[in-house]
Amino acid sequence: MTKISKHPDIIFIGQPNSGKSTLFNAIAGLKAQTSNFPGTTVMHTHSKVNVEGDILNIIDLPGTYSLNPSDPAEKVALSHLFLEKPDLIVNVIDASILGRSLELTLELIELGYPMIIALNMIDLAENKGMEIDFKKLEHALGVPVVPTIALHGRGIKELLDRARQCLDSGTEPPQIPWSRDVEEKIEEFERELPEDFPVVSNKRFTAIKMIEASQLLFDKMLQEINLPLKKILDRVRYDLQSRHNSPAYEVIAAERHHLALKIFEETTQVKRGRQVSPIEKVDNVIMHPFLGYLVFLGVFLVFFLLIFQIGNPIEELLLNPLTSLSAYLSTKLGTGLLFYLLDGLLQGVGGGLAIVLPYFIPLLFLMSLLEDVGYLARAGFLMDTFMHRIGLHGKSVSPFILGFGCNVPAIVSTRILESKRDRIITSLLIPFIPCSARTTIILALVAFYLGPFWALGFYVFHILLLAILGRIITLFFKIPSPGLILEIPSLKIPSLKNIWGKTYFQLKSFVRFAWPILIIGSVVLGVFQFLNLDKYINLVLSPLVAKGLGLPQELGVTLIFGFLRKELSLIMMLQALDVSYLDLMTVVSKQQLIVFTVFISFFIPCLSTVAILWKEIGRKIAFISIALNTGVALVLAFIVRWVLEL
Amino acid sequence: MISLIDAPPDKSLKIVGFVGGHGVRRRLLSLGFHKNDIIEIDSRSILRGPVLVRDLTSDTSVALGRGIAQKIMVEIIDKDK
């Protein structure tokens, strides 16, 4: 690939939970100009940063445990690293688990690009009683080491200074040799690589990666293009295997492991033995085989009720002036086009402000909190048993929980799942999770008019449905799930600044992308109403809406717009029925309200969700998802109507 | 030599090997689980759920599904946790 920018490329790479993104944000905070692409953050985030007059092109890659990828998110990290030679690698390490983290560092040193280490979270390491000799570590690795605490912005300046020095000198790290017999075998194979062989970085690294490569695909390719080389590769692997009594890739992994531990022991003193810190005591309760589940239920009950308790009064407060303004408009302007345009605008702007945001903001905030504390992985552990019942495992829990915020990033985050099967099933189920938009609808309609416990029941119903559907969908897949291997990061006290940052980032994308759709949708409906177009659409949909679901015929048009954004159905509902929010119950019955909410919640995933499904998993799955959701929505709405009429 | 699933929760254990496919072995290796590492079982969940394992050598905690835990062979080291 050719490089267009002449600014130096700096790649941030590290194991998951090493605080890489926090560090990235801490640096990008100093930025002159940034370009953040929402939705691609699981891929990589680019940011141009101005450091004392120099523009640096910083790339944040998803976390990876090693340079031998096992899930799609890791593959993204590596393809970027292998395809484009960066000018500098910043390896971010969680200092509190230095021993293990060094394994990736050693692999990066093998890669041989100029490199610098950000030894992050040194405060956590110190709390654990670890004393790291930075100079010694620097000497052992042959790479500059800078201690940082990204959360508090400590060490950032020095990191950037030393990064600058590395960029100027372009020094490549010296190779650290392994045991002689392994080293001999690698050299033997390295010599056999033809001159024109497509080498990544250097011959040694390429040779190592070829020996380590997973058997099937790569070997088959090599067999096709260079059979003699494949034979030598097999012999080298066999020699390593027979001498060490383990597969060749395990021999190499063990070399790194031992080297990492040796360096760790030489450079770090652990002052006191493992003590149970107060946080670990909390953790023991959260992970307790029995209490853990009580905590889990408690967390979600509080989560839900808190959002309602915060959102509800604010909503009521904001609605009153809105209703009077709308009434004022109607008396002043009569029924001309201007009235319909202005009223549509008012509904779109005001609906977003008064009905959506009061619930949306607390939801985003609490989601980020759960994420940053480290509760998501723990929920994965606790729920693994139940996930097995529906044919998945605990790692799918985190995408599911993210789905309560927004289905789109949840589907992107299924990249952490190793098997395609799990990705497809999880992605098909995610649209059944009530995202913040649908939570808003549930809270604004069901909780507001019928009470919070009705809304809670709605939530429980969603989850039950998810389980049943999961059970059914997995019947179509013959192969079983590969099983759970999930790292449980230590619990962390979150930083308010970080959580607010995340909330703000998502809020910004709502204001920029979703709110305009809400406003345009409402204005378009206003025009439709003026031209009487909505009547025709409603008439066409009438057999379904009025006969089938027993709803007011006027709601037909709102269902169509709900495809753009789920909240749009809510806001347009009031507009279409021509009532104010507080008077809604005068024109619809309790039963109609429930049927409407059920149908809207499950009916066809919103436009962005379909788009991301298409992009991430494929067209076929996107269409299956549409069919599945619409089918389920219809069946459920009919059943609910029938039950309520009994 | 016993499988991790049958190991007692109050003893230090040493990993002596892995059975099963390459995929699982590689994933465990990249998370820092190697042969000869000393590990402990921190917690087990109810209803045949996963096991929470702490690798003392690499200092990491990992939740392992039962299927995976069955594939890790360990031996009990004669000392209490």
What is the secondary structure topology, with strand pairs?
The complex is a heterodimer of chains A (646) and B (81).
Chain A lengths: L8 E6 L5 H9 L4 E2 L10 E7 L2 E7 L11 H12 L4 E7 L3 H14 L3 E6 L1 H6 L2 E3 L1 H8 L3 E3 L8 H14 L10 H13 L10 H10 L2 H11 L1 H18 L3 H20 E3 L7 H9 L4 H43 L3 H37 L1 H15 L7 H7 L3 H6 L7 H10 L6 H15 L1 H23 L10 E3 L8 H36 L1 H16 L7 H6 L4 H12 L12 H13 L4 H10 L2 H27 L1
Parallel strand pairs in A: 1-4, 1-5, 5-6, 6-8
Antiparallel strand pairs in A: 2-3, 3-4, 7-9
Helix pairs in contact in A: 3-11, 5-11, 7-8, 7-10, 9-10, 13-14, 14-19, 14-21, 14-24, 19-20, 19-25, 21-24, 25-27, 26-27
Chain B lengths: L1 E2 L7 E8 L3 H9 L7 E7 L6 E5 L4 E5 L1 H4 L2 E9 L1
Antiparallel strand pairs in B: 1-6, 2-3, 2-6, 3-4, 4-5
Short structural description:
The complex is a heterodimer of chains A (646) and B (81). Chain A is an alpha/beta fold and 646 residues long.
Question: Can you describe this structure?
Answer:
The complex is a heterodimer of chains A (646) and B (81). With 646 residues, chain A is α/β, with parallel strands linked by helices. Chain A contains 27 helices and ten strands. Chain B is α+β, with helices and mostly antiparallel strands and 81 residues long. Chain B has two helices and six strands; from the N terminus they run ββαβββαβ. Chain B is globular and about 30 Å long. The A-B interface holds A 65-66, 68, 70, 96-97, 99-100, 103, 214-215, 246-247, 249-250, 253-254, 257, 261, 284, 287-290, 292-293, 377, 380-382, 384-385, 388, 393-394, 418, 482-490 and B 22-32, 34-35, 42-50, 52, 55, 57-68. β10 (485-487) of chain A pairs antiparallel with β5 of chain B, so a sheet runs across the interface.
